[in-house]
Every structure is written in C-alpha cells, then in structure tokens.
Amino acid sequence: MSVPHLGGDPNANLYAQLKRDVLDRVPQISAVELVPDDIEAKQLRAIFDPGRLDPPTGPESPELTIKWYRQDPDDWFRINYTDPNTGFHAGWHQDEDHPGLGQAHFQYSTADTEDRWGITFEHEIPSLVLWEIIEELLEDVRPTYQYANEES
Amino acid sequence: MTEDGSNSESLMERQTTGEDRVRMTSRQLSEPRTANWIASEAGWSHEPTKRVLERLVDDGILHRDESGTHTTYYPDYRRQAMQEAMRLRDSGHTVEELTDRLADMKTQIRDWEDEFDVESPNQLRGTLADESLDADEEIRRREIAREWEHLHRRIQIVGFAIREWDFLTPTTEPAEANS
User: Fold this and answer.
1) Measured between beta carbons, which residues in chain A are less than 8 angstroms from residue B77?
2) In whole angstroms, what is the distance from residue B89 CA to residue B157 CA?
3) CA-CA distance, B22 to B45, in Å (whole number)?
4) Sheet architecture: strand order including B33-34
5) What's the CA gap between B4 and A19, in Å, rounded?
6) Which pTM value belongs to this model?
7) How distant is the Cα of A30 from the closest Cα of chain B, in angstroms?
8) Does B107 touch chain A (CB under 8 A)?
9) How large a percentage of chain A has pLDDT more than 90?
10) Which chain B residues touch A128 with a CB distance below 8 Å?
11) Chain B positions in Cβ-Cβ contact with residue A76 (cut-off 8 Å)
12) Chunked in runs of 10, what are the mean pLDDT values of chain B (179 residues)?
C-alpha cells in the first residue's frame, strides 16, 4: 500500500491543526466538527453563525466542509461552502475534475447561474491556504456572487 | 488568492500573530525548509521566526538539519501521529467504542476488496484503465481509492490508541498530583 507509515504521515493530525489554526479563530464560525465522527474523521465541518455574516443570511446556518489529503506532489482537497437558505454553493477544489483549469479551481452556483475558473494560492501550507480561502469566501465570494442575479 | 491582492490587513493577520503563523507553517512542511522560506510563507520577519523555530526544535516538534549549505527545519510527524492517538484516548470514547469503529472501518475495506477484486487503493486505480468503465464509475473508483487510503491511515492510528490504551491513560487530576 502506498500509504505512508504511521510515523511519517503528515495527515495524522491535519484536521486538528486546521481546526485550531484556522476555523476556531474565525469569528463568524460558531462550531467545528469532524464527520462522521472524530474516529473516522473523513472531513471537517464548520458551521457559520448566520447573523454574523455580512451580508447576513438565515435562519439556517451555512456550512463549510473541508476534505484534505496531504500527498505528493500536491495535496488533494475540496472545500465547499453551502448556504441552505439561498442554495448558494461555492467550492475551492484541488482535484482531478477540471485539469484544463490548472491545478486548482474555484466554482460557484446559485439557483440560476454557475461558473468556474482556475485559481492559484499565495501560500502552500494547508492552514495558510485555508485562511486565504475563508477570507476570499467572506470578503469577496459571498458579497459578489451569492446574489449576482438578484439586484434589488 | 493572486488576483485582487488588497493591501490592508488580511483576516488571517487580524486573527493570528507572526509566531502563530510560524508555528502553523513549521508543523505542516512537506519538505525541509530554511528559516527564510518559513518566514516568507508566514509573512513574518527573519529574526523572530528563527527564534521561534529554535524553540520548536528544543521542544522536539521540529528537526534541524545543519548538514547542507543552509540550515533547514522539518516537523517530526511521528509526534503528530502520537498526538492524534492521545487525542483519541482523551476524547471520551470507550475502548469498546473505538474497537467497534475499527471493525467497521475494516469491514468497509473488505467490502471494497470483494466488490472490485483488488487488495489495495492503487490496484483499484489500476482498474481505471479498463475501457468499459463509464465516466461516473471512474469517478466513483477514484473517490473510493482516496477514502480507502484515508481509512487505512485512520485504522493505523485508532489501532495504536487501542493497543496502547492503558499506557496512554491520562493523569486525570493533575492538581492533586501536584499537591
């Protein structure tokens, strides 16, 4: 099996690190949990407090799910934001789905529009990449794309 | 992200200190790196970065390698695996719960072995060359191969926590122990 030996596995404590380094420090996030539980720990889920988001949403809480595997030469990850109130979805993926867009891509969808494009990150350390993504989500993606076709 | 690089303080800079970022960076290095590289990734200045790195070396969190032209640092990932095993030990689960979940994870892997008639995630990836597979099935097998590797890693750590259950027993009342 190609899985690294226990002692050399950079995945062992990764979700605990992402939680402590990033998610626990984001004021808009009210809870963080491992899915399906902390034993199998397939992914991390962060729950946003809808009232603390700008623009606000609600009554239900949007979620960010993080699936991240450290591997050579490049990590594999999918980070997905979903707002059940609006049906808005945004994802940052470094996977094999859209090789034409480069190593990583961003995609979003609303009830009536969707788009995707290639992206690069300033950092290569997972916790710092996750900070970039969350900042992008809160300060650019939600305000810009969530209500793209709902000019009031 | 590269486009729209704003100059004002970022969310990360508001919520973390330079030392926090050096600690985050050094624990997740995927290859040995110099203090300069780490300082640049963490967005902090060289001297304080180096001081933090030296403390992390003293604490056994990082290894320092002085054999090359430049001193490099690399995390001891064994320590992180131990930390994860200790976290499981302290998480409030009973050893029976952990054992049951370990069995569940092994069953899941056995089911995949039977379904695809393979013995490893890479053998499963090998079946992707089969021309009769449609695109959806290809995606499904890729996903399963990844989950399989993840489960295998979790089985190793959960198995370690179970084997060393008594040894990893936490000191429950440190206040009393010190008195």
Assistant:
1) 7-10, 12
2) 11
3) 10
4) B33-34, B72-75, B62-65
5) 26
6) 0.91
7) 15
8) no
9) 83
10) 12, 21, 24-25, 41-42
11) 146
12) 58 96 97 97 98 97 95 95 95 96 98 97 94 92 96 96 95 55
